[in-house]
Fold this protein.
Amino acid sequence: MCGCYGVALPVMAAMPFTQLGLNAAILQAVQDAGYTEPTPIQAAAIPAIINGDDVIGIAQTGTGKTAAFTLPILNQLAATPRAAGERRRTRVLVIAPTRELVAQIEENVLAYARHVPVKIARVFGGVGEQPQKIALRDGCDIVIACPGRLLDLMRQGFGDFSQITHLVLDEADRMLDMGFLPDIRRIVDKLPKKRQTLLFSATLSREIEQLTKDFQRHPKIVQIGKRSNPAETVTQMVYEVSVPLKVELLKHLLLRDEALQMVIVFTRTKHGADKVARKLEQVGIKCGTLHANRSQNQRMKALADFKAWKLRVLVCTDIAARGIDVDGISHVVNFDFPPQPEDYVHRIGRTGRAQAIGDAISFVTPEDYGSLRSLERFIGRGLVRKRADDFDYNAKPPAAPDRPSDQRRDAGAQGAARGSRQPSARPQRSRRPGGGDRGRRPATSDSNAGKGATGGSASAAKPERRWGDKAREVFGKIRRGLGGGGQ
């Protein structure tokens, strides 16, 4: 199938890895990983990459695209080792849109390079720069990076990319959209003109494909299936529901259907992800969250716990739509329907990977009908409409939101009521130095209550003076070696 330019390669028939031109070290790593037969994208792309061609690879999620470019690149690195005493220089640059995808690619490269002496560095934001600067300064064979942090470090003078032989743009459609394109252009301008450039993605529009002419020379196009198709092993269904009842429907499905055992839930916003996770936790469903407001350590822990089955549900924004490769994901739930069809394809591709089966559930509100019709045109078929058994679609939604700020205010009010001996007396806040912690009630004791209060209430006394007297008494005890408790 031909693209708008370049040469389309035929899809190769099933064959063993030994017929793809890989050397013994790479074949041993493939065998160690338990693979015997390449996927169609691997069978078609690997010989072309070994031959030195620029390649555009388009295939459904979960079909082994990372191995399709990693294996032949490692093969070429193994065939041209560094000379003795030669300084290590970066020869391969892989750019990906999210930290999770960078980590996923690194994990794959480490597995396939176990018998090849290469040094790998990953570069992304959300963590300290210093280890990444050291890795770039000392030299490494392969750099796997997000564009923003990489460009920052390049501007600071870190990284020698003058010997780059391979550039890979993974999830190329996302990397070449208008959000990333300026950074990608700045990075590519610093690379040698003579190099092999590889672009891989599950979706690639004709408009984005036109942009690839700025980075590639007469690429070979490897396309497996239709560009817009989700994995064939994923069953897709739609539940029509009003906005206020979406959380209730999600809880209903999770509590009633034991088949939903390892579930990724996608929301449109970070706040929405936190809210959904909080609601599920309230009914005993173990959840984690993954979005841009979480620190990198928090994101890594949530993903690790999910992979280890410590969490039943991982609630995410679209940063997890690419790069999450977890075995056994049973369901993907589009809690908020994605406005872009490409995002839908990538989201539901988190399940049904490597020919496994999976289910994709989408909640659709009346506001989403236009996006749903666009998606159905994009993938060339309609989605099955379903209704949950025993769920009241006309129920009155829960009345009071449980925002954390409300809970904190309620807890504070209850605590103040419990700690107050005189409900009518409000604790006074001192604004003067030495007047005690802000908002803390001045020190009093039952034995002194009311002393010196003739003609006035306790609140009329000077709290700063009483606090100073108490402090002098405590410090005096300490000096005399008797100890004493402070406020």
Q: What stands out?
A: The longest strand covers residues 234-240. Residues 405-468, 481-487 have pLDDT under 50 and may be disordered. The domain at 234-386 is CATH 3.40.50.300 (Rossmann fold). The chain has 16 helices and 15 strands.
